[in-house]
Design brief:
- By secondary structure, the chain is an alpha+beta fold.
- The protein has 2 domains: about 5-120 and about 140-210, no CATH class; about 215-470, no CATH class.
- The protein is about 20% helix and about 30% strand.
- The protein contains 11 helices and 25 strands.
- It has helices at about 40-45, 50-65, 70-75, 80-90, 90-95, 145-150, 160-165, 220-225, 240-250, 265-270, 435-440, and strands at about 5-10, 20-25, 70, 100-105, 125-130, 135-140, 170-175, 180, 185-190, 255, 260, 270-275, 300, 315-325, 330-340, 345-350, 355-360, 365, 370, 380, 390-400, 410-415, 420-430, 455-460, 465-470.
- Strands 14, 15, 16, 17, 18, 19, 20, 21, 22, 23, 24 and 25 form a 12-stranded mixed beta sheet that branches. Strands 1-3-2-4-7-8-9 form a 7-stranded mixed beta sheet, with helices on both faces.
Length: about 475
C-alpha cells in the first residue's frame, strides 16, 4: 500500500521497510502537518517539537527495527479539507494493513507519553489441595480486563474504536501494564502467555472487541459502543466509523446509508436514545433524522425479534443519500427515506417524571419511549398534577408488531412544511400482556388516523389495496 507522506525514521535509523501506526491519547495542541509546515516536514520533522507520546512512539518503532511510522496529524494536511477527506476515507486500509498499532491507551492526552510511573506488577498465586491433588491458582483483580484496559482514557474517544478494531495487532500502553492484542490472543505482562478465558469479559471486553474478522452482525453493538464515545469535532460522527463500515461493505457488498444498512433497514430504524445518557447538545446537520448519526446521545438498538419476527408494518421503497465529499461512506449532505406504511396515527405523548403515555383518542396507554432531541418543544403542560405533565403532539408510525399480538415498536414523527414529509422525533415501545391490545383497539377509531392529504402519496395496487407513502428526511 502506498502513502502520500509517512514519518520516515531514516532521519535517525535505517531498517527494512515496514510500517507502524500510533494513536495518541486525548486532544492536545501540538505541531501538525499543515500547508505551511509541509515544505519543512519534507526536509525534517524536528522530534523536539513533538509531544511526548509521539517521541515515545518513535523510540518504540526504532527499537522494533521498522522504517515508517504513521501518525495522522503528521501524515494528513490538517488545514486541507480535500486531503483530510481523501485520507480519512482510506483509514480502513491504513490501519488494517499496518504491521503494528501502537496505542497510548492510558494517556489522557499526547503530553503523557506511552510509559507511566506505576506500581510493580506482582503475580499472586495460592496453592490448594483437593482430593490429594495440589492445585495452583492465580489471584487477579475482579474485572481485570475492564479496569486495566477497556476503561483507559483512549477508549472514550470516538476515533479510537475503529483504530482499535481494524489493525491485526495492537500494543496497548496503559497506566497499569502493557497489553497485546492480535487475532490469536490477548496477553499482558501479568499473563504473557495469554489472557485466561476464565476471567469474565463483560461490557467493555465483550467478544466484538477482540481481534478477529469483523462481521455485519457486530454492527449494532459497535454503534452502541461508539455512541458512548467523545468526538472533538461532532461533524466527524460518520467519518470516524467509516473504516469499519468500509471493511464490512467489502465483505457483504451491501449499500451503506448514513450509518445503517439498506438490506435490513426496517429492522434498524428503531434505534433509541438512552435516557441515562441523553445529551443537551443539538448538533448541526450531519445526517438525516432517521439515522443515529443525527444525535450526539448514547443510543441503543432494541431486540426487534421481541416485536413479532417478520411482522413488519412498513416497506422501504427508496433511500437516497447525498455525500458531502468524495467518500460515499463519510459525511452526508442530505438523506431521504421513502416508505409505505399500514397506518400513521396522530397521537399525544404525555411525559411525567415517573412514566410515559401515548394518548390515543383521549385514552392513555403506558409505553417506553425516548425523544431524540432536547429542542423538541412540548405543546402544553399541566400544573394541576404532581409531577408536572408535559404534552407533545406527534405522528406515531408503527414499524413492527402492530396487529400481530406481540409488542409494538415504532417511531414518533414531526411534520414539515411539505405534506407527507416528516422528521423523526423519537421512538416508542408498547409491551406487556394488555397494552398492545389496547393500543390496537383504540386506533380502530379513524379519528386519529392521518388524513389523505397528510401522506406523500396514496396509491392502490392491482388488488385494490391502498399503500400509504410518506417521506422521512
Amino acid at each position: 500500500m502506498k502513502y502520500k507522506l509517512r514519518y520516515n525514521l531514516d532521519m535517525w535509523v535505517n531498517h527494512d521497510t515496514k510500517e507502524l501506526m500510533v494513536i495518541p491519547g486525548g486532544h492536545l495542541q501540538y505541531l501538525t502537518l499543515t500547508k505551511t509546515t509541509l515544505p519543512d516536514f519534507r526536509q525534517r520533522i524536528p522530534p523536539e517539537a513533538l509531544p511526548r507520546t509521539f517521541q515515545d512512539a518513535i523510540s518504540i518503532t526504532r527499537e522494533f527495527g521498522i522504517d515508517y511510522l504513521w501518525i495522522d496529524s503528521l501524515c494528513i494536511i490538517q488545514d486541507d479539507p480535500y486531503d483530510w477527506a481523501r485520507e480519512a476515507s482510506s483509514m480502513a486500509g491504513v490501519y488494517g494493513n499496518s504491521a503494528l498499532n501502537l496505542a497510548a491507551s492510558g494517556a489522557p492526552n499526547g503530553s503523557f507519553g506511552c510509559f507511566f510511573e506505576r506500581q510493580p506488577i506482582y503475580r499472586y498465586q495460592i496453592e490448594t489441595e483437593m482430593n490429594s491433588e495440589v492445585l495452583l491458582w492465580d489471584i487477579v483483580p475482579r474485572l481485570m480486563y475492564e479496569r486495566s484496559l477497556a476503561r483507559m482514557p483512549l477508549f472514550k474517544r470516538g476515533w479510537a474504536l475503529q483504530e482499535r478494531i481494524l489493525p491485526r495487532r495492537t500494543l496497548h500502553f496503559t497506566s497499569t501494564e502493557i497489553f497485546w492484542e492480535c487475532h490469536q490472543k490477548t496477553a499482558c505482562e501479568t499473563f504473557p502467555e495469554g489472557f485466561p478465558a476464565a476471567i469474565s469479559y463483560r461490557r467493555y471486553g465483550c467478544s466484538y472487541l477482540r481481534k478477529g474478522l469483523l462481521t455485519k452482525s457486530m454492527w449494532t453493538s459497535l454503534v452502541e459502543l461508539y455512541s458512548e464515545c467523545h468526538l472533538s469535532k461532532s461533524s466527524d460522527k460518520l467519518v470516524a466509523i467509516s473504516g469499519l463500515a468500509r471493511n464490512i461493505q467489502l465483505q457483504t457488498k451491501e449499500q451503506y446509508v448514513a450509518g445503517l444498512w439498506r438490506e435490513d433497514l426496517e429492522q434498524q430504524l428503531c434505534w433509541e436514545v438512552s435516557v441515562e445518557h441523553f445529551t443537551t447538545t443539538d448538533p448541526p446537520y450531519r445526517a438525516p433524522s432517521w439515522s443515529w448519526a443525527s444525535v450526539d446521545s448514547q443510543i441503543i438498538f432494541p431486540d426487534m425479534e421481541s416485536y413479532g419476527q417478520g411482522c413488519s408494518n412498513i416497506r422501504i421503497l427508496q433511500v437516497h443519500i447525498t455525500p458531502s465529499g468524495p467518500d460515499p461512506l463519510g459525511d452526508v449532505k442530505s438523506g431521504v427515506l421513502r416508505l409505505s406504511c399500514e397506518i400513521l396515527l396522530r397521537v399525544t405523548v404525555k411525559i411525567l417524571d415517573d412514566g410515559f403515555y401515548i394518548v390515543v383518542n383521549g385514552k392513555e396507554i403506558e409505553a417506553q419511549m425516548g425523544l431524540d432531541r432536547q429542542d423538541i418543544n412540548w405543546t402544553s403542560y399541566d400544573h394541576s398534577v404532581e409531577p408536572i405533565a408535559r404534552f407533545f403532539e406527534f405522528y406515531a408510525l408503527p414499524i413492527s408488531g402492530y396487529n400481530s399480538r406481540y409488542g409494538i415498536i415504532g417511531l414518533f414523527l414531526e411534520p414539515t412544511e411539505q405534506n407527507g414529509v416528516f422528521r423523526r422525533a423519537g421512538a416508542f415501545r408498547i409491551t406487556g400482556e394488555l397494552h398492545p391490545r389496547y393500543f390496537e383497539e383504540y386506533t380502530k377509531d379513524t379519528i386519529c388516523h392521518a388524513k389523505k392529504e397528510e401522506y406523500y402519496r396514496i396509491r392502490k395496487d392491482k388488488f385494490g389495496r391502498e399503500h400509504r407513502i410518506i417521506t422521512i428526511i
